[in-house]
Structures are given as C-alpha cells and as structure tokens.
Amino acid sequence: MYDFAVIGGGIVGLSTAMHLSESFPDRSILVIEKEDHLAEHQTGRNSGVIHSGVYYKPGSLKAQLAVRGNQAMVAFCKENGIAHDMCGKVIVATQEWERPLLENIFQRGQANGVKARKIGSGELKDIEPHVRGLEAIRVLDAGIVDYTAVVRKFAEILVFRGGSLQLGARLKAISTRPEGLLLHTSQGEFLARYLINCAGLHSDRVTRMSKLKPQVRIVPFRGEYYSLVPERRNLVRGLVYPVPNPAFPFLGVHFTRMIDGGIHAGPNAVLALKREGYRKTDFSLGDSLEVISFPGFWRLVLSNLGEGLKEIYRSLNKAAFVRSLQTLVPEVRTEDLIPSPAGVRAQALYRDGQMADDFVIIRDQRCLHVCNAPSPAATASIEIGRYISEQVSEMVVSVSHTFVKS
C-alpha cells in the first residue's frame, strides 16, 4: 500500500512527487513510469527553453505558474549545479502588419511582470547581428537548460526522502477498492490511497481508466526540427522567435540555442499518426482512429486549414522550411541544416475544436488528473508540482473528514 501513486516519470510527475515528499514526509510515494528511463517523451524531447511567460493571458494559471516557475527553475539550477544559461530572447517583427501584434505581446509581458523591452532594428542588430527585423521585444527572463538533468535531480531528491520509482511499468487498468485504488501494471499490481495522473501523452486515457470522462482529448502534434551545422552556429547567439500568428496555437518556426551549444531551427507542427510518433513513418491505427473519430479534431482542421497546410508543406519540402527561416535570418541556406530529433506535443482538444490554452486539472475524491500541461510546463514544473501538491492536500483533508463523519 502506497499513500500516493504518481503516473508518469516526466518533469511534471517527478516535480509533483518531490513536492508531495516535502508536504507529506511520513507518507509513502510511488512514481510509476512505463519506460525504462525517466523523461523519455515530452520532457526529454523539447527545446530546453526556460520560458518567460511573455505570451500568456494575464491572470491565467499558465501565466502565473510560468513566471513563478521561471524564477524557481533558475534558483533550482543554481542550487544544484545544473547547467543553464539565461541568454535572453528576441521576438522579431519582420513585416509592418506584425507591429500591433508585437505590441500586444509586449503589453501581456508587462502585465505578467516579465523583464522585457521594445527595441529597434539597430539594437536588434547589436544583439543578433544576422537577424533581420523592423523591431523586436528583448526578453531578459528567458534562457536554456537540460530538463533531463533537472528530472534526474528531482528523482534523486524524491528517493533520498524515501520515495520509490517503478520503471518499465505500463498502467493497464485501475480498480477501486475500499482502501484505495488498485493499479494494474505490466510489472504487477500496486495499491494506493491517492492517484495523481501526470501521464502526458496518455493523460486522457488514464483519466478514463479511473471512470472519469475528461472534456478534452489528447491530439498529438509532432514538432519537426533541423539543426544548424557547427560551422554556421554563429548565425544565432540566443533565442530568436517570430511574432506568432494569433489564429494559430503554435509559436512559429524559430531558432533555439541549446545548452550543448547546438542551434535548433523549427518546429513544423504536424499531426502525428501515433501518440509517440517521433518519425514521419510512425503509425498506429488505434491512435489515428481515436483522433479522426473525435469531432473536435475536424473542427480544428476546418478553422486552421490554411496554416495547417503550410505546416504540412514545410514538413515535406525543405526549401519551403528554409524560406520560413530566412524571414528571420536571411543568410541561412539549405545546406546549413541537418535533420534533428523530433518531439511530440500532447495537445488537449475540446469537442468544439478549441485547443485547451491553459492547464486542465480534474479532481475527484481520490484522483487528480493533469489533462493538459503544454509548454511552458517544463519551465513551470516546480510551481506546477507545488500547485498539484496543494490540491492533493485538499483531497486528503476532504477524504479524512468524510471518513470521520462516516
């Protein structure tokens, strides 16, 4: 019997378990991960950016946790000797019609307390000599880190405090027992009083296993990247982003300096035909049918058809991808780019076709399900874990009161 079982060995799951071990030092905690290693999926396959919170709607949970999480992540890395670099980023307007959109982003950043300022083309050249733009936002509260190293430290802290990790254990079913929840896995059965679902790409499925019906369905989008060849890394010093299209839920093709010195360019955001479909050839009939049978998917397609077709075209045509990069860095050439590993984003989608823009957390008496934790979840992971731990504390109090009354 465990007091708490956390499903998912990514950055949100491990942060949650770490905070639970602090809030409940005398309780037993188990993290169940289906892979043989931690951080195998979204956590270990993202761009490694420490986001600032500049884009997000003021007052939203995402904005609050991102800004606080940014500060917490930097402090955690400093305290534990984890390599990171607050190199800053620029969001660049390359066309006249983008100026009002850039101003809107700047105002959001100001409302969220982000350290940023507007700069002209001359100062932009000083910061990023090879970037072309009319004006930009210089964001100081942005950087890069190795999130896999962060997860390893979370796990180390958890185990030091007495928590347990069960790797290679795929969750197959959940049964209710008077004393708690029986978790049927590929490595045997585990009994827990409380369940916290941080399963990322499979979070909606785990929610349904617990007999709850989430309002959202996870639709996987593959982010396809290239890397600059080593001799052309001088084209980018830090993080270079375009002004995102407000009608499309992704940030656009951008340049990201990695903590190892490499430069990633991308992503294209295209539908993945498998929840863990990191290659263009990856396909799962079950995963694909689950997507195309969901009404929200088709409503999303119809409302974003033009942008979606552009993403697909760039995925199939490297020259088109290069042209999109050249709007920011004109000197980039086709031969400067080599393929880089892709990631898959677990995007929660409502039946009306709207993408869940904020974190989606569902609770009942003994279960808490994180059904949507998109970017900037890695940045905000410390604060997300703290927030979830507080929610679980309320569950424990509620169940204890119910037990006393009965």
Task: Describe this structure as you would to a colleague.
The structure is a single chain. It is built from eleven helices and 19 strands. The chain is an alpha+beta fold and 406 residues long. β18 (360-363) and β19 (367-372) form a beta hairpin. It folds into two domains: 1-48 and 146-215 and 357-406, FAD/NAD(P)-binding domain (3-Layer(bba) Sandwich); 218-238 and 246-350, D-Amino Acid Oxidase, Chain A, domain 2 (2-Layer Sandwich), CATH 3.30.9. The protein is globular and about 65 Å long. α1 (11-23) packs parallel to α5 (147-160) and α1 packs across α11 (381-405). The strands form three sheets. Strands 1, 2, 9, 10, 11, 12, 18 and 19 form an eight-stranded mixed beta sheet that branches. An eight-stranded mixed beta sheet has the order 6-7-5-14-15-16-13-17, with helices on both faces. Strands 3-8-4 form a three-stranded antiparallel beta sheet. The two termini are 22 Å apart.
